[in-house]
Design brief:
By secondary structure, chain A is mostly helical. Chain A has 18 helices and 2 strands. Chain A has 2 domains: 2-168, no CATH class; 187-401, MetI-like (MetI-like fold, Orthogonal Bundle). In chain A, helix 14 (322-338) packs across helix 18 (391-401) and helix 17 packs across helix 18 (391-401). Chain B is α+β, with helices and mostly antiparallel strands. The radius of gyration of chain B is 35 Å and the shape is elongated.
Chain lengths: 405, 414
């Protein structure tokens, strides 16, 4: 590793990796937005990176104006090398020119910014590691953004296309704005032909009732576990955790049998019985953690003033832990909204579908895939909106309870 | 409130508290035992019975009564037909009997040998019915004058039929057939291997990627909140939406990833990511990592931000390099949360069903134990075998949980 700790080795090396990262990202982004086939040439990309890195390691030698001229020269060299090329026989076009210039600018600016003071010769261990960490951090941002954003981007863009466009070029996600409202055709059809309005309504109804029922059971239970002394408290709280770990598929089989026997299959009532049961242990576990953080002195002073336990809970503990209750509610709502397995097994009648069951119905060879993706977008939007606006609460809920899968 | 006793002197404060605790816990306790404990017992019960989906309803004898001919004047003759059948095609019903009232004024002659009439009550003893058995029992009648006073038709008296059938679900016959069937096949060990591969690599991968994401986001700069929100997307979106998106994305014929790779000349022919044997398992594991790295990220970041800055400053003064600080300060501080996360995620990945079911349906060598429950019980309609697999899952889980509780009692809680 010691031979790497020289400015003139580390800087070109990091710039080389960085150049490859940028070139690939640009190619993927432009391919996904124009449908054109673009590819970075490894050799030219590497050369560009090495060049920029070498100049960076010498940068302290130049004066400001000199530095500017050197980078301008490199910029021209990179554009002439044009590491990003289209894979067709057509002549060089504006898109390539644009991408190569963009590549050169991003590479030069980011490399010179992060490695301005790297120096030409030996680096201290401290400096060396810092440069590597900087590179890894930047790489990490691009990597994670790409893996998270690409599937969601494809989901949204596919829903705006039609079958023949999708088959013609699966990469072409450019939007034809001239279509106007016609772009959202899949969505209109979901609501008119596939009855999605009813599924959304059912899902909201089921999810909100699940939240209410869960809280009605979990708040008293959590309070008892958190505050009151009774025999078997330890056993009870660990059995909550244990139940919380029983896989749904193990329970789903006897529940399916039982519900068939009692006529609860294919009914919203059945769903409303089973959903809270899957969420009560989580909610109880989360809430008891929150209730413990309410200071016992405040409650005791309430008891001293002659309030009963129940009114202490209602007038002191609950208002104090309201934010936590909001977190738990959002988390439970999210679980109920996203729930798929039970809805899939228990509901067969399209008039009673929840949104996830409705989307599962779209997964057939007769339904075009833009409808499937439009359905997925519709199912995702409420959770995402909730997440964007109430992010703080949801994050709290996630950290407190989301040991669950 | 409920059962709360204000009787001072007789009930001590501690006792009162205990009473209240049980009152508060009772609803949860009841509903959990009803919907969790009961099914668990049921699954153990069923796993020892060789039954299929169609056995869920016990066989019943079914009877329908019909009047042939008209009864308009005194002395008219007619026939009463009883159509009787076994509801099941396979199973025997023993000792089938039925009773019916004969309305006043109707005289029965030519009675079937298996039947007798006593005080206007017809009772027949039909013996045993084989699976799919059906017959029509005929009764010749003539009307008398009294019949026309009330004119109660034979149809208006409803016959009652009983029979003894063995309900496989409730009978006390047990067998190990399901378990033998499951363990007998090589397939079971294949399933076990797939489950362990998926669980171990899915858990470790999600943990490592979560750690990486947390490390890069554990700095303060503007716009960092956006990234934190974005990185949680895979976890909060409905599994059905993201799973279908992945399936479309990696489709061999019209998927964007294949198109991208072909256009960039990385591959020549499209790859069937979710349909080929070793690759499909790797892909579902990658999906698992993708979907759950946000969770590890969230926990690890929360823990990182609670680490005291002073410690790092002190290490900096002593000349520790960034990597040294990471190895000797951050990692030991994070070890607790990392191991708790590992155990919990391990259990949850082991239990995971939806993801694989939606991505591959358990085909192409991706059938885990949980998918196998569904496969056995619903695709092959062998409920007993499905239950047996569920029991095996439960036993594994019990083992993991014991480990977990042993461990968590030593570590701080979450």
């Amino acid at each position: 590793m010691r031979f790497l700790r020289k400015g003139y080795i580390l800087a070109p090396l990091l710039a080389l990796f960085w150049a490859i990262t940028i070139a690939w990202s640009l190619c993927v982004i432009s391919s996904f937005s124009t449908g054109e086939a673009l590819k970075p040439d490894i050799l030219y990309t590497a050369t560009s990176g090495l060049l920029v890195g070498l100049v960076c390691s010498r940068s302290e030698v130049y004066k400001k104006s000199q530095g500017f001229i050197v980078f301008l020269l490199i910029f021209i060299t990179i554009v002439l090398l044009s590491p990003i090329t289209r894979l067709s026989d057509e002549p060089f076009n504006n898109l390539e020119l644009f991408l190569n210039s963009l590549f050169a600018i991003i590479l030069i600016i980011s490399a010179s910014k992060t490695m301005r003071d790297i120096g030409f010769y030996a680096l201290s261990r401290h400096e060396f590691e810092n440069y590597i960490i900087k590179f890894l951090t930047n790489f990490g941002y691009i990597f994670f953004t790409a893996i998270v954003a690409i599937p969601f981007y494809v989901m949204v863009m596919t829903s705006l296309k039609n079958q023949s466009e999708l088959l013609l070029n699966p990469l072409d996600f450019s939007i034809d704005f001239s279509k106007g409202f016609y772009l959202f055709r899949s969505y209109f059809e979901l609501f008119s032909d596939f009855n999605f309005g009813s599924y959304i309504a059912t899902s909201f109804f089921v999810s909100i009732l699940t939240v209410i029922i869960t809280l009605l059971f979990a708040i008293p239970g959590a309070y008892a576990v958190a505050r009151l002394r009774f025999k078997g408290r330890g056993l009870f709280s660990s059995s909550i955790l244990l139940i919380y770990m029983v896989p749904l598929i193990v329970l789903a089989l006897p529940i399916y049998i039982g519900f068939s026997l009692f006529g609860l299959r294919n009914s919203i009532l059945g769903i409303l019985i089973i959903y809270p049961v899957t969420t009560i242990p989580v909610a109880l576990y989360m809430l008891q953690g929150y209730f413990r953080t309410v200071s016992p002195e405040i409650e005791e002073s309430g008891l001293m003033d002659g309030l009963s336990r129940i009114s202490v809970i209602l007038k002191i503990t609950l208002p104090l832990s309201l934010p936590s209750i909001v977190s738990v509610s959002l988390y439970v709502f999210m679980i109920a909204w996203n729930e798929f397995l039970l809805a899939f097994m228990l509901l067969d009648d399209p008039s009673k579908f929840t949104i996830t069951r409705g989307v599962a119905m779209l997964d057939s060879s007769e339904v075009p895939r833009q409808h499937l993706m439009a359905g997925s977008v519709v199912a995702t939007i409420p959770v995402m909106l909730m997440f964007l606006f109430l992010e703080k609460y949801l994050r709290q809920g996630l950290t407190a309870g989301s040991i669950k899968g | 409130m409920l059962g709360f006793n204000n009787n001072k002197g007789t009930v001590t404060l501690a006792k009162k508290e205990e009473q209240l605790a049980w009152v508060l816990l009772l609803p949860t306790f009841l509903i959990i035992s009803f919907i969790v404990i009961l099914p668990l017992i049921a699954i153990f019960w069923i796993s020892f019975k060789p039954i299929s989906l169609s056995d869920l309803r016990p066989p019943k004898p079914i009877i329908k009564e019909r009047l042939k001919g008209k009864l308009e004047n005194s002395g008219d003759k007619a026939e009463v037909h009883y159509r009787i059948r076994n509801s099941s095609r396979e199973q025997i019903i023993n000792n089938v009997k039925f009773v019916d009232a004969i309305p006043t004024g109707l005289k029965v002659y030519d009675l079937d040998a298996r039947c007798q009439i006593y005080q206007r009550k017809l009772s027949c003893n039909l013996g045993n019915f084989k699976g799919g058995y059906r017959e029509v029992l005929k009764l010749q009648i003539t009307s008398e004058d009294i019949f026309f006073i009330n004119k109660i038709l034979p149809k208006e008296t409803i016959p009652k039929i009983t029979g003894k059938s063995e309900n496989v679900l409730t009978s006390l016959n047990f067998s190990l057939v399901n378990f033998i069937k499951i363990f007998d096949r090589d397939e079971f060990f294949q399933v076990l291997f797939v489950t362990l591969f998926y669980t171990v690599f899915g858990t470790l991968g999600a943990l490592l990627f979560g750690l990486f994401a947390a490390l890069i986001l554990n700095s303060n700069f503007r716009g960092q909140g956006i990234f934190r929100g974005l990185f949680l997307f895979p976890y909060v979106a409905p599994v059905i939406a993201v799973a279908f998106t992945w399936v479309l994305l990696f489709d061999p014929f019209s998927g964007s990833i294949n198109a991208l790779l072909i256009q960039m000349q990385v591959i020549e022919n499209p790859i069937n990511f979710f349909g080929k044997r070793p690759l499909a398992l790797i892909m579902v594991t990658v999906f698992e990592i993708w979907r759950y790295f946000p969770l590890s990220f969230l926990f690890i970041l929360a823990r990182m931000q609670s680490i005291d800055d002073e410690m790092y400053e002190a290490a900096e003064m002593d000349g520790a390099s960034p990597f040294q600080k990471f190895w000797s300060l951050s990692i030991p501080m994070l070890l607790g949360i990392l191991s708790i996360l590992f155990l919990l995620r391990f259990i949850w990945t082991f239990n995971k069903f939806d993801d694989i079911f939606l991505l591959t349906g358990g085909n192409a060598g991706t059938r885990t134990l949980t998918v196998n429950v569904y496969e056995q019980a619903f695709a092959l309609s062998n409920i007993g075998a499905g239950a047996a697999v569920a029991v095996i899952i439960f036993l594994f889980l019990l083992f993991f949980s014991i480990l977990f509780f042993k461990f968590i009692s030593r570590e701080e809680g979450l």
